Amino acid sequence: MSRQPIRVDVIVFSALRDAWPDTLAVTNGARMGHRPTLKDTRDRIRKMPFLQVRQLAEDYVYRDVIMVNGEHRKDKLGRAIKEGQVCLVSAWPSQRPGEKRKCFAVLRGYQASKEPRIHMDEYTREEKLGVREKESYEFEFRPVGLFGQLRWAWNATEMGYQVSSKLAVLGFVMGGLGLLFSIAGLFDWHDRIVLVLGSACLAILVLAMLGLAMPGRNGQMTKLWNLKADWLTAIFTGILAVTAVGALWYARDQIRETREESEVQIKEARQQAQIQHLLALVNEFDQEPMATYRRGLAQKRLKGTDSDPMELYRLLDFFETVGVLVNRGYLNEEDVWSEFGHWVLTLNADAEMHANVAYEQKRDPTEYAVYQSLVDRLQRVDAAHHGPASQISKEDVMAFYREELTIVGGTPITANHH
């Protein structure tokens, strides 16, 4: 019986098909009219060496640790990955290139062998990556940043890592809430906002404490003295977070009380300064030369000998100064109405005075504008107190001037007809 010749090309093709089924599938697709896409090319470039899955040492079980020797612990660009780096580990457990499983794990070295092997525990192997022991698969390692490290700890198999990460986030959230409490105290927001934020903070705290009270693998609650160092760190971190929020709440109250006391002191000091300014003006209005100006204006108005008396402008200049101080907050308009309202409003009822001011304003429209603003202020205050300013007649103006004739320098301002 004759022997059939050995087809070397068939043997090579079979070997290539078994080793790189994805590559041959792309090649066959190109032959059938399917052009390889950029994704197909990128997938082939990113291929990592096949690693055989092995069981992890017992000391690292349930720690989300994967061991790979340094020769194969590289990223897709061939760069070495430091030992202890948190990475996103991807695996292709099936022959279909789009079906990928991935998880976060800490990559550590394995010095006992340089064989292309990857060591992981049963939970990582079956539940996360879906690979089987002693089988070879393609793996990809990608180092992650801070957010990835937090995700690794948040979803870690070891409960200590989970609690530590969640309490760290809890502390950050509670610190932010404490800052909001302080801001609410500074800007005097409505108390209901503070109540809502406080309720949210307490709700987060209660959920965190309930998360700590979880049963162990034997169904019994873990006692504090039997906890591992990671658990103790997590618990004391939570206590520190609660203390920080309490300190922020206390600081908020202190800041609010200090601000309120400061506002009261500033208000009292401002009132005292206003009283001092008012007393100084009252004394100036009572003394010379103002007493002479008032008396001289009254004489000329009653006799009708001077239609444009110089004394009128001295009085108007004085009340201009009073108006400036009122506008700038150095005087309280209620106090000014009480001390000077009788003179200002009666003088404003003098028709001849208006003719004199109108003549001056033809040359300068801003002349005695501050005095007019003072008159407007005092009229509003007088109306609020139901004063007689709107009912001052010409006879009342003449009686006012007759009263001014009796003024002697140093005589206190006691005439007030409100």
Structure description:
This protein has 418 residues and is of the alpha/beta class. It folds into 4 domains: 1-45, no CATH class; 46-145, Beta Barrel (Barwin-like endoglucanases), CATH 2.40.40.20; 158-258, no CATH class; 287-404, no CATH class. 58% of the residues lie in helices and 9% in strands. Strands 1-5-2-4-3-6 form a 6-stranded mixed β-barrel. Helix 9 (290-303) crosses helix 14 (394-404), helix 10 (310-327) packs across helix 13 and helix 11 crosses helix 13. The longest helix has 58 residues, at 229-286. The protein starts with 7 loop residues before the first helix and ends in a 14-residue tail after the last helix.
Shape: rod-shaped
Number of domains: 4
Helix vs. strand class: alpha/beta
Strand proportion? 5-15%
Order of helices and strands: HHHEEEEEHEHHHHHHHHHH
The helix content is: 55-70%
Parts with pLDDT < 50 across at least 5 consecutive residues: 1-36, 38-46, 212-228, 413-418
Strand order of the largest sheet: 1-5-2-4-3-6
Radius of gyration equals: 46 Å
Count of extended strands: 6
User: End-to-end span in angstroms?
Assistant: 143 Å
Count of helical stretches: 14
Characterize the biggest β-sheet.
Answer: 6 strands, mixed, barrel
State mean pLDDT (0 to 100 scale).
75
